[in-house]
Amino acid sequence: MTDDQHKTGLGRRAVLSAAALGAGGAVLGTAGTAQAREQSTARPGHGAPGHGGAPKLPVPTIVGHRGSAGYRPEHTFGSYEYALEIGADVVEQDVVPTRDGHLVCRHEPEIGGTTDVADHPEFAGRKTTKTIDGTPTTGWFTEDFTLAELKRLRAVERLPAVRQRNTVYNGRWAIPTFEEVLAWADREGRKRGKAVWLHTETKHPTYFRGIGLPLEERLIKLLKQYGRHRADAPQFLQSFEAQSLQRLGALGGAAPKIFLLNGLTSRPWDFVVSGDKRTVADLVTPAGLRWIAGFAQGIGPTTDVIIPRDASGRLLRPTAVVKDAHKAGLVLHPFTARNENQFLPADFQVGTDPNAYGDPLAAFKTWFATGIDGLFTDNADTAVLAREDFWTSRTPTS
Predict the structure, then answer these.
(1) In whole angstroms, what is the distance from residue 232 CA to residue 54 CA?
(2) pTM for this prediction
(3) Which of 179, 180, 245 is nearest to 216 (CA)?
(4) What is the structure's pLDDT at 116?
(5) Distance CA 343, CA 364 (A)
(6) pLDDT-derived band of residue 169, with 50, 70 and 90 as boundaries?
């Protein structure tokens, strides 16, 4: 990316197009490809190819959240592989360290809810309480285990009461290292004839740096080994902490960076530690978005930042965040879209069972209509169908 491109919203988004937008025929077929091309044409500059023959990504891009968490225990090769099978354009990982410095894929360092560690009496003494980002948490933590010890554990479904069918896979898969995921992505890319896109998050980076296990150096070292640090790589880097993204950039990570944002009243933990008083509400103002554009190429806010909900859970009018972010040259990958009633706006819930499916197709299309560039989802197949419907509704009939 040239300095001139970096300074202008159009230039930034044109370069980022390799990592966010474009035509996507592999899953969608001929009609989907044509419609995606119309999308990229309507938004100048999008659709450049990615590194190593990486496919152009459709608009909106479907990000498989923790793989295919709606159908398989999260952050397992079963979850990652199934995400590709059901149409995800990008597969997400969260990385945390082991005691001996390896990066493994877990949503949180506490693994009591996502592995069978509690069934291992030899690890009973490792259970403890820690305060991470200001929140006391009791359980077992990856940083207290060597990689060899973690490999003795097996993954289990995190939400067994919600996704009972997923429990049939309990114990089937081990915890993957991020290096194993990179090797897997390379193999899958060769097998499928196109690069596999990854969306990788540094979890609690300030906490881990504080205990002598910094994430960024380890992550960039691995990305460089696989050529995924470059600006044209099929790779997103994401974090809830600005300093982590800035550090990744300073270490040579030129791959597109997405700044994750929680609710409007929240503050990134690195802001809390440094005394920065800004909240997410400040960061999604035009001035805040211009500041983000100095070190990131996109934002990943909660869907409620895009369309707020009232006290009953019903959707209100969309905010100006999409328009303002695009004006700043940023793409938007909101999180997280799911099929179950309890995760949907009240407008799209069906019946009274919180674990039953509502009308996610309608919900997803409503979010797509705001102009977002991508969406994290536990149910990539649902999102792909919603995207097809959304494109069809936007295609003029002759």
Answers:
(1) 9
(2) 0.89
(3) 245
(4) 98
(5) 12
(6) very high
Tokens of 86: 């059901």
Burial letters 139-176, b for 16+ CB under 10 A, else e: bbbbbbbebebbeebbbbbbbeeebeebeebeeebbbb
Q: Which residues pair with 281 in a beta bridge?
A: none
Say how many C-beta atoms besides its own lie within 10 A of residue 204's C-beta.
Answer: 21
pLDDT at 147 over 60: yes
Q: What gap in Å lies between CA 340 and CA 360, rounded to an integer?
A: 8
pLDDT over threshold 90, residue 312: yes
Angle at 362 between CA 356 and CA 367, to 5 degrees: 115
Q: What angle do CA 74, 78, 79 make, to 5 degrees?
A: 35
Cis peptide leading into 336, omega within 30 of 0? yes
Question: Using 50, 70 and 90 to split pLDDT, how confident is the model at 397?
Answer: low
- 305 Cβ partners below 8 Å, 6+ apart? 261, 263, 264, 280, 284, 319, 321, 334
Average pLDDT for residues 190-217, to the nearest whole number?
A: 97
CB 350 within 8 A of CB 358: yes
- Phi/psi at 94 (nearest 5 deg)? -110, 135
Structure tokens at 71: 């159908």
Token pair recorded at residue 154: 């097996």
Rounded average pLDDT over 344-368: 98
Alpha helices for the chain (secondary structure H) = 3-7, 9-20, 25-42, 77-85, 147-150, 178-192, 205-210, 215-225, 242-250, 269-274, 280-283, 286-292, 303-306, 321-327, 360-368, 380-394
pLDDT over threshold 70, residue 165? yes
3 or 73, higher pLDDT: 73
What is the total residue count of the chain? 398
> Which residue has 């990615």 as its token pair?
50
Nearest-CA neighbor of 264 among 215, 316, 337? 316
Pairing state between β 128-132 and 135-139: antiparallel
How many whole angstroms from its chain centre is CA 75? 12
Question: In this predicted structure, what is the pLDDT of residue 55?
Answer: 62
Confidence (pLDDT) at 20: 40
pLDDT, residue 56, reads 84
Residue 142 has pLDDT above 70, yes or no: yes
Token digits of residue 356 = 């039953």
